[in-house]
Specification:
The complex is a heterotrimer of chains A (294), B (366) and C (362). With 366 residues, chain B is of the alpha+beta class. Chain B folds into two domains: 229 residues, P-loop containing nucleotide triphosphate hydrolases (Rossmann fold, 3-Layer(aba) Sandwich), CATH 3.40.50.300; 118 residues, Beta Barrel (OB fold (Dihydrolipoamide Acetyltransferase, E2P)), CATH 2.40.50.140. Chain B contains nine helices and 22 strands. Chain C has two domains: 224 residues, P-loop containing nucleotide triphosphate hydrolases (Rossmann fold); 116 residues, OB fold (Dihydrolipoamide Acetyltransferase, E2P), CATH 2.40.50. The chains are: A mainly alpha (294), B alpha+beta (366), C alpha+beta (362).
Chain lengths: 294, 366, 362
């Protein structure tokens, strides 16, 4: 009620930030919005199209397929990376030189630029000189990412897991380190099993870092571009063509500015929506607990 | 149910201890009897937490034996020792309800649900947690959480001892009184050996039947609170027990008189004899502030002292005095007259202790 | 330097943390903020320091309004519960740090650091790093940093909580002596009534963001303004008994009747709550008008020199603090004497209506 008594001059302090955001986000975004409702022929000829591009985009089977592929990909990598990251964090040594050594080793993949990751794996999977490609063939498996969609998928997922599981592992590791020893001691005295310790002590304390981890990984993986583009170029066929690549082809390759602008906005809204749903769901889960308690 | 025996026990955190200073626990023998309420009292760094962790099995001693009912348990882990421990900061399983927290140790060993229910309700009743059973442990207050962690020890039928590691640190003073009473009540009802580690002498003495005072890795005295108060056998115990601690005056025999610094003390002949007989130059007379007689006017055989400060502590006052150059404290009750500027002191012989090389020597008196 | 808080409110997100606090701290005074966890002690200190700005009201220093002035322009220092030092700096550099920031000359820094260290008995530790020190020594270093810069206000937020009981005793005595010679305003937060008494000076009793009472420590203890202040400032907690005054007598426990003595004669008929300090109940009568009560022992807690008895009748509980060792078995019947000339009376609203004429020594 007395909130108006707060010192409102402080609002001026966010003005620079507001300007910065305006330039970096709002203006480009509005440009896209602008294009998304017009049909542009050249610099002087344009028509207002209303929601036409949006309807067209949403009904485009190629885009729908890309969207489905994208969800399948994101959910698969999350389903692998989160449990794997937690497991790695649990196995990492807690102190001594081993801790530092393992930490450096685990961090390594995170330091490599996206497109370089793609190149590394491109070479790695080649049947003639790549260790994995050559090895698998030698073992009698007809591995070929340019022909088999399953191989291409498997490889991209493997690559993403290799690249990004360390992020989850590091987040969880820091979360685990923050648990006081007394909790483990109490659990031993209560004769808790290893599973019970994980379920009732470690997992609850990891919830917060995991929320951050899952959100980051979802956004990242949903926007994945450089790695599959370098590795498979979206093929074979369009089996590994994800959303961002479809969009790039549309906007740059075909110069379909209207539809690609509409599509960009839809893309943006999907990410926003999924993150929002996920975040509120987790927060509500915690709130419910508190309400029940009170 | 267990009697806990420590036999020739010593512990060092260093792999190759050489001097006595390397030991966190110096060699000791000790027995905690079944069903007793004990306290382990000492300043931080005296080794009391180390000893507690050795008893609970979180730490294996470098040498000596830990026996439970005569059986060697040195290398048994905590889960195999049937011991419960309450930590300084409350440890509860946040996401579980109070009920599930209490049921946890029983469910871990596959106790039938009916039995779990019965025990949880019984323990919740004793701890006055029945109304909170359905709440998440996360949302409890600090004292409720401490009760829950205590309850996890009590639900088990097989627990032979509960160890407390400064359990009231995070509790407000008014609630400490309540919780301490609860502890005593539980001790009486369950007949479990309890060992309570603390640096607070009031907590130790009101909880325990017998207190082990630890100093530099050793138990310097093991006795009832009354013994520790009235006849501390080491100057450290005199200083550490009591608030404020015991007054110590370095004394010597000079020209046939007992003197402390430049002051000639007026003491009974028995004290004189005891000082004369002692064969050391490290002699101290100890007297508790409670037992120093303070008179606002001259009385027979009294020594004149200067009053430096008076602290009104509500229902009594602590008077800081100077006898020559020696600083002394005396406790004066609310109904007794307070001295101003000057005071006349007497040391009743039955309340004086002589400390030779820091250890107490009884002064014979009628 | 005086500090005045005028009609201070602090609300955060619609929730009241501090409500209508008026407080005037005298130059050179030592002030204890006494209250339970979450009573608003730390919040009030943050307002004094200028770390927070009140929602309503003014903060005056030396008569000047400093309400919106930031902590950096107020010459305030603070000591916390945790031992907060710069881990990479020696004790010497830790203590010197506020002076270096103030660009004091090197010679002056050296003089003041050594003087402060000596005052706190850490002059032999100046070359050490904080983490090589014991908890008590670390806290002394933190205090050194707070004291060296001659701040106008020094704030202590439960600085002894993480120290051993015996060390706390020493610190309290030293602080008492130290501040008797200084001219700054010291403010010290604690949850322990005994600590407030041991520190002396003035005490402000806080409860749920409100200031219950402020005055000289002994006065606040002996002359509580209301029942809450009495309860907050007593350890063991003061006994509260319901009683009905009618005509010339008091009825406790529905059955026990006692004639009103001279002290209590002025009480109008009606219902009261009577406050009895645990230390005032005794095993033997000390005056003719003592009230005799028969109770049952629930428990006796015996420290070496004192006994705390918890006794009950059908209608009320009493805590009794006795000198010396007295052994009682649970369930044992006991007769106790409550001195009517040491009893406080509170009306239904909780305001004090009678303070014993012999309260304390004053």
């Amino acid at each position: 009620m007395n909130d108006k008594l707060y010192n409102n001059r402080a609002w001026w302090l966010i003005l620079p930030m507001l300007l910065l955001v305006a330039f970096s986000a709002i203006i480009p975004l509005m440009t896209v919005v602008n294009y998304s409702v017009q049909d542009v022929f050249d610099a002087h000829t344009r028509f207002f199209t209303g929601t036409e591009w949006f309807r067209e985009t949403l009904n485009d089977p190629a885009l729908q397929a890309a969207l489905l592929r994208q969800f399948a990909f994101s959910l698969t990598v999350l389903a692998i990376e989160v449990p794997l990251g937690i497991s790695i964090a649990l196995l990492m040594p807690r102190k001594g030189w081993q801790a530092s050594a393992v930490l450096i080793l685990v961090t390594m993949p995170l330091l490599i630029p996206w497109n370089v990751v793609g190149s590394i794996w491109q070479i790695f999977t080649r049947g003639d000189i790549g260790l994995m490609g050559w090895g698998l063939r030698e073992l009698g498996y007809g591995y070929n990412i340019t022909r088999s969609a399953a191989d291409a998928w498997g490889t991209i997922i493997l690559m993403d897991v290799w690249h990004w599981t360390p992020l989850i592992a590091l987040l969880c590791y820091s979360g685990l380190r923050a648990i006081p020893d007394a909790y483990y001691q109490a659990a031993r005295i209560d004769r808790a099993s290893r599973w019970a310790v994980f379920r009732y002590i470690q997992l609850p304390k990891l919830t917060n870092v995991l929320v951050i981890g899952v959100l980051l990984r979802f956004m990242h993986s949903f926007m994945i571009y450089a790695e599959p583009f370098v590795l498979t170029g979206g093929g074979p066929g369009s089996s590994t063509t994800f959303l961002s690549q479809t969009l790039t082809t549309m906007a740059i390759g075909q110069q379909d500015l209207g539809p690609s602008a509409a599509f960009s906005i839809i893309y943006f809204l999907i990410i926003l929506l999924v993150c929002w749903i996920f975040y509120t769901a987790i927060m509500n889960l915690q709130k419910d607990k508190q309400n029940k308690g009170a | 149910m267990a009697e806990i025996t420590l036999k020739g026990l010593a512990h060092s955190y260093l792999p190759q201890p050489t001097s006595p200073g390397d030991y966190a626990i110096r060699e000791m023998d000790h027995v905690w009897q079944q069903g007793g309420a004990y306290a382990l009292l000492g300043p931080s760094g005296c080794g009391k937490s180390t000893l507690l962790n050795i008893i609970s099995g979180l730490l294996e001693p470098s040498s000596g034996e830990v026996l439970f009912d005569g059986e060697r348990v040195n290398s048994l882990p905590p889960e195999a020792r049937n011991i419960a421990q309450v930590f300084q900061f409350p440890v509860v399983y946040d996401t579980m309800t109070v009920y599930d927290n209490l049921a946890f140790p029983l469910r871990n060993v596959g106790t039938p649900a009916g039995r779990v229910h019965e025990r949880v309700l019984e323990v919740a009743d004793v701890l006055e947690l029945t109304a909170q059973l359905k709440r998440k442990a996360k949302n409890l207050t600090a004292d409720e959480k401490q009760k829950v962690s205590m309850g996890r020890g009590l639900v088990r039928d097989d627990v032979s001892a509960i160890l407390f590691d400064e359990p009231l640190t995070v509790i407000d003073p008014q609630l400490k009184w309540k919780l301490r009473r609860k502890l005593k009540e539980i001790h009486r009802r369950f007949n479990i050996t309890m060992v309570y580690v603390t640096h607070d002498q009031l907590e130790a003495s009101t909880f325990a039947d017998k207190i082990a005072v630890m100093y530099e890795g050793q138990v310097v005295q093991f006795g009832t609170p009354r013994e520790l108060f009235e006849a501390p056998n080491h100057t450290f115990v005199g200083y550490f027990i009591g608030s404020p601690g015991m007054n110590f005056l370095e004394v010597a025999l000079r020209d046939g008189r007992v003197v402390s610094g430049a002051v000639s003390l007026s003491v009974a002949p028995a004290v004189h004899r005891a000082v004369a007989e002692a064969r050391s130059t490290n002699l101290k007379l100890g007297i508790r502030p409670e037992f120093v007689e303070v008179h606002p006017a001259p009385v027979e055989d009294a020594m004149e002292a200067r009053v430096e400060d008076v602290q009104d502590l509500g229902t009594y006052a602590i008077v800081q005095l100077r006898l020559g150059e020696i600083a002394l404290k005396a406790r004066v009750e609310e109904d007794e007259p307070l001295p101003e500027e000057r005071a006349w002191l007497r040391f009743p012989v039955e309340r004086l202790g002589l400390y030779v090389d820091e250890f107490r020597v009884e002064i014979p008196h009628e | 330097m005086s500090l005045i808080l005028e009609n201070i409110d602090l609300k955060v997100g619609g929730e009241s943390h501090i409500t209508d606090v008026n407080l005037e701290l005298q130059p050179g005074s030592f002030n204890v903020l006494l209250g339970r966890t979450l009573a608003g002690k730390t919040t009030l200190m943050r307002l004094m320091a200028g770390l927070d700005t009140p929602t309503r009201g003014r903060v005056l220093m030396n008569g000047q309004d400093v309400t919106g002035v930031s902590v950096r322009h107020r010459n305030v220092s603070m000591v916390y519960q945790q031992f907060i030092n710069y881990p990479a700096l020696s004790v010497y550099d830790n203590i010197a740090s506020p002076l270096k920031l103030a660009r004091v000359s090197a010679a002056e820094i050296d003089r003041r650091v050594r003087q402060t260290a000596e005052m706190l008995h850490i002059e032999h530790l100046l070359d050490r790093l904080p983490l090589e020190l014991s908890g008590g020594q670390q806290q002394r270093t933190a205090m050194g940093r707070a004291l060296v810069k001659d701040a106008d206000i020094v704030l202590f937020d439960e600085p002894l909580v993480n120290l051993d009981y015996k060390l706390r005793e020493e610190f309290r005595e030293e602080l008492r002596a130290l501040f008797s010679k200084r001219h700054c305003i010291a403010v010290y937060a604690t949850t322990e009534p005994a600590e407030a008494l041991a520190l002396g000076g003035h005490t402000a009793v806080l409860h749920e963001g409100r200031l219950l009472q402020y005055g000289r420590t002994e006065d606040v203890y002996h002359r509580p303004r209301d029942i809450l202040a009495a309860e907050m400032f007593s350890e063991p907690p003061i006994n509260i008994l319901r009683g009905i005054v009618s005509g010339s007598e008091v009825t406790f426990d529905r059955r026990m009747h006692f004639p009103l003595n001279d002290d209590l004669r002025r009480l109008a008929p009606g219902e009261y709550r009577f406050g009895v300090r645990p230390a005032h109940v005794s095993l033997a009568p000390r005056a003719e008008d003592d009230i005799e009560v028969r109770m049952t022992v629930e428990m006796a807690e015996i420290s070496g020199s004192e006994t705390f008895l918890h006794v009950a009748s059908e209608l009320f509980h009493l805590t009794v603090h006795l000198e010396g060792v007295h052994e009682f078995d649970p369930g044992q019947a006991i007769t106790l004497y409550i001195p009517t000339h040491k009893v406080y009376a509170f009306d239904r609203a909780g305001a004090v209506v009678h303070i014993p004429s012999h309260a304390g020594r004053a």
